[in-house]
Amino acid sequence: MQITAYDHVGLRVVDRARSLVFYESLGFVLDAPHSNERALELVATGGVRINLILNGETPPDGRNVLMDVDARWPGYTHAAFVVDRLDALLAWAAARGVPITEGPVDWGRRRTCFLRDPDGNVLEFNELTPAATAHTLVTGNKNYSSWSMRAWMLMKFAGVPFEEAGVLLYRPGSREAVKRLGGETGLAPVLLAGDHAIWDTLAIFEYVAELNPAVWPRDQLARARARSWCGEVHAGFNHLRAAMPANVRGRNRKAEITPEVEADIARAAHIWSQAGGEDGPWLFGAFSGADVMFAPVAARFVTYGVQLDGRAREYHQALLAHPLSREWAALGQTEADVIPDAELPEA
Q1: Lesser CB count within 10 Å: N end or C end of the chain?
Q2: Is the alpha carbon torsion for 115, 120, 121, 122 positive or negative?
Q3: Tell me: the pLDDT tens digits for 211-221?
Q4: Is beta strand 122-128 parallel, antiparallel or unpaired with respect to 78-82?
Q5: What one-character-per-residue DSSP string does 108-169 give?
Q6: Rounded to whole angstroms, how far apart are CA atoms 338 and 177?
């Protein structure tokens, strides 16, 4: 027998409705098919599960027998959860008048605080400190390398410190230079995490998401949709890419708009028309890796004068105005290198 994962923690509660309100406000959702009159199974983003055991009795003095009496009885003293942002948890507690019983405390690998549920059960919340791995991002020309733009924006957005190693692309020896830095295909970008190389953009996204879960939406189904759209960009939009070479500083360039290119443009516009939510104007409300993936597409549309309407147009303008998009474009403007094949004539 080998233990392969942690399944759930059980918490004894007194009032079913009161506990449901509390834990649902923390982001847990009732898993009704796996609940019954004796226990409720709840699941949070990322698959974290708890069981609320519905046989608690209110103690006469209101104290938790494991935590609040002088005699220290054996037993499970608390449940500990990982959160993406401890400050958000603290704001949640302040807004609902839930006292923080201890913390925040910085333990080095994690930052922690404690609070209690309505039954006095102690809950611990931890924001993990990113590993102190040295990161180097191998990028191509900022004016021409759309995939480098994605990885660079992602690292900046996720707050992962990195050094940058630039390689001028599409010239003799470019691929060999990238390979010497660890990229097995010779293509940029490549993320070096210590001695380990990650040379595929989707793999870079997943690696960075493990350092900062904010890369993906919190909701499980939204995360799946975000990954689907990112996979679509990664593997598709080939007609658009071929007709409109990345050229951040280019303007009023003329591309051959075939029916296939029109279909790619329409697909991007359809996705962008779904942007916006309670948390903000982006594809999933809050800014995420899905928006990063589409940033070079937005830049291409400026270069080649693609016109959009309605919500897609608003999203396009917002993405271009994002500070990271603007910073990358400004860096591209300063480059003197020219790749002739990417310099289509003006319209």
Answers
A1: N
A2: positive
A3: 888 999 989 99
A4: parallel
A5: SSEEEEEEE-TT--EEEEEEEPPP---EEEEE--TTT-HHHHHHHHHHHHHT---EEEE---
A6: 19
Cα distance between residue 328 and residue 249, in whole Å = 10
Q: Which residues contact 49 (CB under 8 A, 6 or more apart)?
A: 7, 8, 31, 41, 42, 43
Residues 6+ apart with CB under 8 A from 179: 185, 186
DSSP state of 1: -
Q: Which of 313, 155, 290, 303 is nearest to 233 (CA)?
A: 290
Determine the residue type at 51.
N
Give dist(CA 15, CA 29) in Å, integer: 17
By the 8 A CB rule, do 92 and 26 touch?
A: yes
Where helices occur in 56-114 by DSSP H, the ranges are: 86-96
User: Residue 54 contacts by C-beta under 8 Å, 6 or more apart in sequence?
Assistant: 13, 16, 37, 38, 39, 40
* Model pTM above 0.85: no
Q: Could you write out the DSSP letters of every residue in 260-291?
A: HHHHHHHHHHHHHTT--BTTBSBTBBB--HHH
- Torsion region of 159: left, alpha or beta (phi above 0 gives left; psi -120 to 50 gives alpha): left
Per-residue pLDDT of 6-29, as tens digits, reads 889 999 999 999 999 999 999 999
Length of the chain: 347
Token pair 């051959």: residue? 256
